[in-house]
Amino acid sequence: MPFETDPQTLQDLALTGINGQAAILQLFKPVTLGGVAVLKEMFDRPLNDIIIIQNRLGAIRFLDSKQLPIRLNKEECDFIEYYLKQYERLGTTSRYRAIKAHIQNWLKPSSQYYITLRGVRLLVHLLHHIADVLNERHDLPALLKELQQQTHTLSHHIRPLLIQKSKSGQRFSAMELEELDFIFRYSKSLEVKKFMAALYQLDVFMAAAKPVRDAGFSYPEFITAHHPTLDLKGFFHPFIEKPIGNDIAFNYGKNLCFITGANMAGKSTVLKSIGICTYLAHVGLPVPAAFMQTTVFNGLFTTINLSDNIMAGHSHFYREVLRIKEVAVKVGAVQNLLVIFDELFRGTNVKDAYDASLSIIKAFTGVKNSVFIISTHIVEVAAELQDAGNLFFNCLTTGMVGDKAVYTYKLQPGISNERLGMRIIEDEGLVEIIRAQALT
Question: For 215-315, where are the alpha helices, taking DSSP H only?
Answer without folding.
Answer: 267-283
